[in-house]
Design goal:
Layout (H helix, E strand, L loop, with lengths): L4 H5 L2 H10 L6 H5 L6 H13 L3 E6 L2 E6 L1 H36 L1
Antiparallel strand pairs: 1-2
Amino acid sequence: MRRDIFQAVADPTRRAIIVLIALQAMTPNAIAENFNTTRQAVSKHLRILTECELVKQEQRGREIYYSLEVEKIKEIDQWIEQFRKIWETKFNQLDVLLSTIQKNKK
């Protein structure tokens, strides 16, 4: 079952996992060491992130390493960008309004 990427990043533990593996690939055990939860719970989060294609698995010898799938993260960034532009426009309009009010007070 393929899940929605926004469903995956809605969970704080999954977001924390993404942050952990953003710089380097890690094994499930190494990831689990950073959480106060069971290894099985971390595995469930990794399965969801893998189903959403936010992380990828790589077999290295007997270990499986998880790393970030950057292209999928870019999808999230593109979606957020539309709101960033809206808010930047609103803040710029507010700056102009505040400047106008200050000039009128002088």
